[in-house]
């Protein structure tokens, strides 16, 4: 194999994310794949060939059955995969079931039930507050007491690589006009986020405690919550974001199991306001995750948001989401909100990076206040793995297309 | 049959709403039922017995396949049902397939894809504005330019009769305190609404025009968007309602096909601000629906909200929902928002009826500012039908239970 490629380093035996693929020559098929380096294992075929007791969920056309199977099955399947792919004894039978990544098409890997988007970076929330409410308090009074969130449109979640047509919509009336503007969004933006995929549901009326995160969450993905800032600014008072967000949300094709991120847990920032007991993680194991994100526009890096700086953790988001008795379903997706660190180059959206367009980015192909048609946005990330290795998260990318005629 | 019962009058041959039932003696089964008076036709059994070409979708365990089949099938199935139930020639074979309503259990009749809740009553929006922003403008500047809406939690939609445990949550800190209140909601409310059920989906990037409502919407239901006003008030700035609503949304077990409401179309209120072209219904057929709602608490009528007074119509809501390129899926549910008329007794939630608790209602069993544990709330409605008849909508009811221990 010669020198280790970047893919091999980021997607080694300690990673093993799950996805759903079609072989290039059978585009109507859907098979569960597990990524190893720049290849994909046909997990169902491997399970059948090797007599796995989990051949049924691994032979399904999506991850739904595996997600629903629960944590003991997730762990058993992961142990099998590590054995199949790592033990010389199995290598001969498994080798023919590994396909080059560039010979498959990747699909949305699970059925999205409800999609919730949080707003859990203090740096992001403060920057947005300063931009939209200059001179006012940058955080709303509730912000340090709960992970603020809202429901997004599950039907608009799409897999990495899907195009993103520029949305049409209303914007605030021009000065002196009584009629709103209307047309393709002029302020199309990204939001670099991390998504959490729920496997095991919960019962209605039974809040999920902080300690139960790993019983319910199967894994993580990268998520780009595309945002039309002009549509959003005009519509969002009083009921929150709607059409400014609902046109597209892209997720990575690969779901990294939480079990691959054992070395990435880290303490969240100090809580300067004591949370209520159901959100108090002072005596819990560290609930932050050290994920290092990068944002690229047309291949050019524009930001490196550090997920470890998020104020509210996934466990707190889950506890809050269910405290009112709402239950979880297999396939629920909840996202962190824009990941922004303290430094200007750590901001996860153009609204912040260009300070609402006032300070355009200089890219090799010109200036950007907001996205132009044809721009390809890619989010990547890695986390510390065992023994100083890196665990890669699958990238999420999308190209902006003109509004359909 | 003697005198015509109220059920017979409201659920006659011109109505024929769809639901999903289990026979009392086979609780695990799910069958499609069609209501006639106080009886339910086993629609799959009838279709098979009478050789219908639509036996497959009618024999499914939910309405999903029928919804997806599209308007030509909806019309053909309705014509068959009218013939089976109305023609003497078929009566003998169909009669044994009619079961008394009180021998079946009704279930959520379709898989809810995305749930969107609008805010389309001007009276409701003005009352809420006056209550929460006294002295300010009662409508936000965008209100007359678009049907304001947001996404709710699809997983919390439940069928009429399901209990509604009182939600737990945070509320605004008491005067002088820095810590939010926490506990069972003290201001549990209802919202009397009408829900629209999407049958035929649409393509991403292709807005649905006003004229296409009936190609996409299969029918209507009654909907109670239970709301915890104290949780909502503390959380909703800046991203809108979340836990104050996400614990429960109840819908009627019966979906009334739009084809049963032909006589109910009516002109919406005059538009005093001209809408943008994609929302302009001035030259369209009347887009309002004359549905007369009633709200009952423990059987006592407390309000009669007139749906015909809604400012924004279902066609406008659908056009707005998709103008940004978001697509529709089978099972999408969008609701009107609280239905409130101009008169005090026409208001569709306790927030308005009691003016934020300041003027409690007097019920036979005592005063109510907001709901008490044990309160049973029922919404009913009827619409004008052919020849002066009334078309009943299935009721939606729910009983408030104490917060689980």
From TrEMBL, chains A, B:
Its cofactor is Mg(2+); Ca(2+). Ca(2+) binds at residues 117, 191, 193, 225. Substrate binds at residues 119, 133, 232, 236, 338. Keywords: Calcium, Hydrolase, Magnesium, Metal-binding, Phenylalanine catabolism, Tyrosine catabolism. The keyword Magnesium applies. The active site is at 124 (proton acceptor). It is an enzyme of class 3 (hydrolase). It holds the Pfam family FAA_hydrolase. PANTHER family: FUMARYLACETOACETASE (PTHR43069). This is fumarylacetoacetase. It comes from Streptomyces triticirhizae. The gene is fahA.
């Amino acid at each position: 194999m010669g020198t280790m490629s970047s893919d091999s380093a980021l997607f080694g035996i300690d990673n093993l994310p799950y996805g759903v693929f079609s072989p290039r020559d059978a585009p109507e098929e859907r098979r569960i794949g597990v990524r190893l380096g720049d290849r994909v294992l046909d997990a169902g075929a491997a399970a059948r060939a090797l007599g796995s007791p989990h051949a049924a969920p691994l032979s399904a056309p999506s991850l739904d059955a595996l997600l629903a199977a629960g944590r003991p099955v997730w762990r058993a399947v992961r142990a099998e995969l590590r054995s199949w792919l790592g033990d010389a004894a199995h290598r001969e039978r498994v080798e023919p079931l590994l396909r080059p990544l560039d010979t498959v098409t990747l699909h949305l890997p699970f059925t999205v039930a409800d999609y919730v988007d949080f707003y859990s970076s203090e740096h992001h929330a403060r920057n947005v507050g300063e931009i939209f409410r200059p001179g006012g308090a940058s955080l709303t009074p509730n912000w340090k007491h709960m992970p603020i969130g809202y429901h997004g449109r599950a039907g608009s979640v799409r897999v990495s690589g899907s195009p993103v047509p520029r949305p049409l919509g209303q914007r605030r009336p021009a000065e002196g006009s009584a009629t709103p503007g209307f047309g393709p969004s002029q302020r199309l933006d990204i939001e670099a986020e991390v998504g959490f995929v729920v496997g095991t549901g919960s019962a209605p009326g039974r809040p999920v405690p902080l300690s139960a995160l790993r019983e319910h969450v199967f894994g993580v993905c990268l998520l780009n919550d595309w945002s039309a800032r002009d549509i959003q600014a005009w519509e969002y008072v009083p009921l929150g974001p709607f059409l400014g967000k609902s046109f597209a949300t892209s997720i990575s094709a690969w779901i990294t199991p939480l079990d691959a991120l054992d070395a990435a847990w880290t303490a969240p920032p100090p809580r300067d306001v004591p949370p209520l007991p159901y959100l108090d993680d002072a005596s819990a194991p560290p609930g932050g995750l050290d994920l290092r994100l990068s944002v690229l526009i047309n291949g050019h890096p524009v930001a490196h948001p550090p997920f470890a700086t998020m104020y509210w953790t996934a466990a707190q988001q889950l506890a809050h989401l269910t405290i009112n008795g709402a239950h979880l379903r297999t396939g629920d997706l909840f996202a962190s909100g824009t990941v922004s660190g303290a430094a200007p180059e750590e901001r996860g959206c153009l609204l912040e990076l260009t300070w609402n367009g006032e300070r355009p980015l200089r890219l090799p192909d010109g200036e950007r206040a907001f996205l132009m048609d044809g721009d390809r946005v890619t989010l990547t990330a890695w986390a510390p793995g065992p023994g100083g290795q890196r665990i890669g998260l699958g990238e999420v990318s999308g190209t902006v297309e003109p509004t359909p005629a």
